[in-house]
Amino acid sequence: MGKNLSLNPGQQIANELRAFTDQHRTHQFGHGRAQCGNPNCSRSWLAILKDSRRPMFEGRWGCCTACVGALVNAAIRRESGHDEAPPDQGGHRHRMPLGLILLAQGRITNSELQHALDLQRRAKSGRIGDWLIQECGLTQGDITRALSVQWQCPVLTMEGFNPEAMALAVPRLLTQTLGIVPIRIAGKQILYLAFAYQLDASAAFAMGRMSGLNVQSGLTDPVEWAGARQRLCACDGIEATFESVVDMDSMSRNIESAIAVMQPRASRLVRTHQFYWLRMWLESGAMTNREGGVPVTREDVADRIYVLSSEQ
Q1: Domain boundaries, the chain
Q2: pTM, 2 dp
Q3: What is the pLDDT of residue 85?
């Protein structure tokens, strides 16, 4: 096709450049225009020359620093509860008292229960389950099974627990402070989390979003749980940095800067309790699913953990 002689040289060059980049875009991405993940992006058409494979944040490409910042701000609002709240994880349901469950199971008598409760009130300390073990001859297994009825969850064993692999699923800081203990992944679809005395809905929800797996929480023997937690913390996990920030704006700028520098192929932000956890998968080889997944090695993955100074 010949050149349009009605156009001046500058317009002709601009049109030819657009045609070239359209062809390049179609060849590189296989379909249509490379889309920035920021719905309010006002970038020029020249931004299509950038590599739309990175940086990626929560499955969306940020074409420039400003657009990455917009995506990060939206995620922080979501995680801080300023936007739609996460689905109810059952953490505030009314639960039958442990003593009544054991009474209904025939494990203890009413007089034994009242005696243990009286001792607990006098001591002003201790779990009722520990008092029942001490005074009524119950085993820890009896208490754990009753707690599983109370929390409507399974009793988990440590069968198949690989601390080196599971240490890559969660930062050591969260295992140490919140007691998050992943014990295994079944069928590349289900991540099992173990707790000692009660479930943690916030931790389970965050782990599910970060891993892209279905999370099944359960209770386990407290001694076995403590041992697994200790073994996890002794393993080399993903390299993580911790930072206390004064406000949400400071956190947003810090995350935006980290993504701009690291240029991850995937990244995600989740919150559990006071901690905001950013994970970045730097290369596609570190990813086990489209959104990132649980890494199989420490290479090419980085964690950042933030907490507001007012919440420490």
Answers
A1: 98-151, 163-234, 240-311
A2: 0.84
A3: 44
